[in-house]
Amino acid sequence: MTATQKPKRGEIWLLRFPFTNLTSSKVWPALILSEHGNDFIVLGIFSRIPSGILKETWVLIDSQASYFKQAGLKKTSLVNTEKIAVIHRSVFQRQLGSLSTDVMSTIDIALKKSLKLN
Fold it and tell me: What CATH number is given for 11-114 in this structure?
């Protein structure tokens, strides 16, 4: 990431995302939710889509959707609002794309369900 680039809400970035047991991390796309100094709250984005009905805390980013190209992802993916992390700016690699305000509104609803805020 260049010094002038600052991740913003709704952008998708490639970064080292931690496993939940904190034993390791893997480079994955993540959605920026908010910034707090040099730390960012992000949601994991995953390309492995489970078969059957998706959880209400997951949001599908479908490769057939009109907004997909703007997202910068390679294939249909899933924003998992249960996979929340606080990530330091230093582990960000590059921006892939961004999501529209409409998609972000859907993600906000799923996130509230994940955090049991509604």
Answer: 2.30.30.110
